[in-house]
Structure to design on (265 residues):
């Protein structure tokens, strides 16, 4: 049970309300987006392929479970869920008192959500504007207000709010020097992206072996992960992501360290 004094302390703390509001915003956007994608049979959510005739043309079988699993396979969704769960745990646990709330892990989560934000706004959104005809429903110029809400919450507003909080307001006394962070933690930030990438590539090969196309989000969630289309482009993206993971996490550690050092002087 929570002590009454602790509850009152939380209620009077603006950080509590900031984290609660950000968490609710992200969860609403994810749940809303999930429901829309599952309930819309026009989306490319594919559970199973079966040959329709002797030429091997596939029949798409839609399944809500398959749709949900495919949706949850997007890095955008997973990184936003990490943020939302971080915020949720921080509402009931003191920052630093839980494994997810340590400075190191918090920096990692901030790094992942930053990559989500950068890739969407600098790569995916411009690619949609260029590749899709303006008459298409998925062209950004034809997005409805609800679509803009979901996209901007998960790819811009939510990430910025979380990054801002972690860098400037998260309670922490752990200040690592840049050399120490690079030596001990900089490679660890890549564990999750590596596991995610391996999972997506293995899943893609299994689905292609089942007769699914080599393109499309049902096989590869992001076009730049399509190893079959352009392996050298894929390798280039891998090195860029490695640089982003190490660079962003090191930068965030430096900012937090400077903030702590300023408090101590």
């Amino acid at each position: 049970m929570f002590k009454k004094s602790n509850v009152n302390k939380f209620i009077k703390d603006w950080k509590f309300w900031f984290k609660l509001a950000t968490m609710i915003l992200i969860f609403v956007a994810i749940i809303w987006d999930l429901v829309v994608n599952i309930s819309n049979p026009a989306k490319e959510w594919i559970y199973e392929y079966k040959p329709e005739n002797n030429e091997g043309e596939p029949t798409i079988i839609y399944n809500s479970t398959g749709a949900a699993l495919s949706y949850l396979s997007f890095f955008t969704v997973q990184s936003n869920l990490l943020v939302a769960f971080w915020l949720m745990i921080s509402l009931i646990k003191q920052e630093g008192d839980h494994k997810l709330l340590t400075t190191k892990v918090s920096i990692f989560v901030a790094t992942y959500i930053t990559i989500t934000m950068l890739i969407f706004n600098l790569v995916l959104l411009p690619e949609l504007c260029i590749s899709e005809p303006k008459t298409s429903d998925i062209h950004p110029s034809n997005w409805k207000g609800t679509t803009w809400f979901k996209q901007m919450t998960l790819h811009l507003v939510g990430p910025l709010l979380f990054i801002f909080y972690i860098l400037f307001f998260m309670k922490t006394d752990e200040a690592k020097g840049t050399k120490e962070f690079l030596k001990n933690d900089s490679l660890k930030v890549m564990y999750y992206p590596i596991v995610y990438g391996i999972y997506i590539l293995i899943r893609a090969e299994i689905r292609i072996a089942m007769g699914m196309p080599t393109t499309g989000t049902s096989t590869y969630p992001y076009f730049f992960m399509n190893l079959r289309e352009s392996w050298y482009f894929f390798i280039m993206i891998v090195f860029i992501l490695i640089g982003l993971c190490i660079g962003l996490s090191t930068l965030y550690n430096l900012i937090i360290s400077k903030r702590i050092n300023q408090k101590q002087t």
Remarks:
- The first strand starts at residue 48 and ends at 51.
- Residues 53-57 have pLDDT under 50 and may be disordered.
- The radius of gyration is 21 Å.
